[in-house]
Every structure is written in C-alpha cells, then in structure tokens.
Amino acid sequence: MRSIKDAISSDKDCIEDLRFYPTQDSKCAIDRAISIKAGKAELLYVYIDVEPIGFNRGFYTVDVRYFYRVTADAFVGAARPVQVQGLCVFDKRVILFGSEGTAKVFSSEAAFDHLDEQNIRKTNLPTAVVEAVDPIVLNMKLVDVCECRPCDCELTEIPPCICACFGSELCFGNDGKRIYVTLGQFSIIRLERDSQLLMPVYDYCMPEKECTCGGCDDDPCEIFRHVKFPVNEFFPPNSPAPLPDNCRDLKGCCS
After folding, report:
1. Cβ atoms 74, 81 nearer than 8 A
2. Where are the domains of the chain?
3. Among 151, 137, 167, which residue's Cα sits nearest to residue 43?
4. What is the pTM of this model?
C-alpha cells in the first residue's frame, strides 16, 4: 500500500511574463504584428528532480520544470488574425518532508537481458509526483526588442520529445518582436514511498498547505487569486452513476 507522508502541497502559481519561443512558421507573423490576442496554453510535460537537503535530514528539494505549448492570434494590419504557437517554460522549486529510508528494494520486474537497469535495484527513498491541469492564460503582450528585459535567459536544452510537439523548429534568437505570457497554474506536488499500512478510508482530502506567490501585484494575478482550486479536475466525482430500475434496462442482460 502506498503511503503519503505529510509531504504534499497544493500550488496556485501566477506565472508572470514567461518568454514565448515561437515556431519558425510563426516568427514572421509576430514580427509584422501590431497586436496580439491571447489563446490557450497546453501543458506538454513536467520534468521533476529530487535531491536531499544535507543540512536538514528528511527534507528534499523538488525542482519542477513545466513545458507549455501556447497559441495566440497575431493581428497583422487589417487582415484576418494569424494563429501563432510557441513554447513557454516555467521552473519552480519546493521543499518537502519525505522522511528517511535506507532499505534496498529489488523488483521481479527487472530483466537482466534488457536495458532496464533502473529496475534492478532501488531504495525506498521518496518519489516526487506532480499533478497539474492545463494553465489559464491570464495575459499576453507583444513588445519590441528594445523593450525586452535584459535578464532574459536563453534556453540551452529542450528535450526532443517537446520539440516534436510543434509543427516546425522553435526560434530562440533575440531579433524581432517578442511575446510575454502570464499563466495561472494549479498543481499538486507530493513526495511518496511504498509502505505497508492498514488504515480506514473516508473521503477525498485536499491538502491545506498552499504555496502562495509573492509580489504579484498586477491585475492578471489579482484575478487569478479569486479563482477557486479545481478539485474535480484532480479527483473523480463522489456520486456513483444511477443504476437501472430493472434488468431490461441493461443491454444484453435479458433476451
């Protein structure tokens, strides 16, 4: 039975001014655009890395990187808007309690004749799990190169599976106009490990710990703070489906 040890947090992040990396097909339309209209954002992948904290035993840092595919409408003169798409990346770090464990775990799923060495031996140290829904696009703005932030960092490595989600290659250069996106992200981050326990089950329980974002004074973030956490997106409904009144209502039950 899987045990979750006090290491869970529900996060409501207002992510301001994410750099938008457009595709090659979208770059020309963005450079000629006079305005931009927000579209939607899709969460493609989440990379997770867990490291123990040396000065505080039992606690771990969880580094999370979110990869988004964002679409928008670029208005070029009086013509119809052109749909553009690109990549946005968001990094965050949380510190959670995961307890300690030094037992070695061996699994019968390991096959010594194949490339699955990660299943041959492992420890019972906690595993990080991130549950997230597609974010809400709160704001999007188009700026010239002279108005861009000097602290913008270039992405150096993008997983090939992320690049394959776009129709063409991504542009990471500094020339031309840029788009900055503000997203609202709901997620649940937890540490868990396998443990043999016997416990009663009552109902779903939402974590009470919330990682609040600091310094979000803009209007998009203020609006996002009043959005309720979408509990139904993470858990199935509690009420079961209604049962039929008689056997004939079930297809294939009676001749």
Report:
1. yes
2. 2-194
3. 137
4. 0.71
